[in-house]
Amino acid sequence: MKQHRFTVHDVVKITGISRRTLHYYDSIHLLKPTEIADNGYRLYDREALARLQIILILKDLQVPLKDIADILQLPRVEQQQLLVQHQKALLQQKQQLEFSIERIDQWIHGAGWHELTMPDSSSLIPLQQQYETEAELLYGHTEVYQQFHSQLDAEANPSIRQQTQNDFENAMESIYQQLAELIYEPIELERIGLLIAQWKALLETQMPCDAELLTCIAQTYVEDIRFVNYFDSYADGFATFLHRAIILFIEKCREDEEKATQNGVDQ
Q1: Band of residue 121 on the pLDDT scale cut at 50, 70, 90
Q2: Can you name the residues that pair with 72 across neighbouring β-strands?
Q3: What pTM was computed for the model?
Q4: φ, ψ for residue 7 (rounded to 5)?
Q5: Which of 43, 52, 58, 219 gives the lowest tally of CB atoms within 10 Å of its CB?
Q6: Where are the strands (E) in the chain, listed by range?
């Protein structure tokens, strides 16, 4: 008795896959029709249908089609070995996805791009290292940068150096938070000037800061989109506010120096 044959229409109706997919599986020799009818129709027997159902299960388990072809030709023990490897790959993907979801959550809840943690397995150079290399390329020829770098190199203990850096960043963040609370106050407010003076004093624990360097830093805060995004995470428009406050501070310092010089001449 001849076995029943299913047409493409039947297979589509039974499994829910598309006609185009079924034809594709035929073209890559993953699932060939049991026979071709005289009218050119592809026909499938129950064994082919069962094979297709296994293919669809494996595909739903995210097994690549090229691996599915291999798996179907192997005995069960070897199939298990291949699927164990696939399971490990899926678990790794799961960890990466969970980590990505975590980082997106960090950003949604206020973290800046530079604050997002990166997995140890990432092929990217750590962001802090990228910043350091960028700074060296931009300012490595300057005396200020060389003094700063010499100061870092002088600290041989990595844990102490890291703690110093952490203390510096925490102190900076505190100043930014206090300034952000004053963003709608007049820029000439004495409290703002005092906080900028603290900001400058903190910078000078890391490197010498003259008016030219401070102006360059202030310009970077509004010209580099990374800094703009970081500072605006404190408050909308904070990068522009901080730039104005720093420039005003520099101008006042200049005026005070000129007055002091003039008073010395007059005396």
Answers
A1: low
A2: none
A3: 0.49
A4: -80, 170
A5: 219
A6: 6-7, 35-36, 42-44
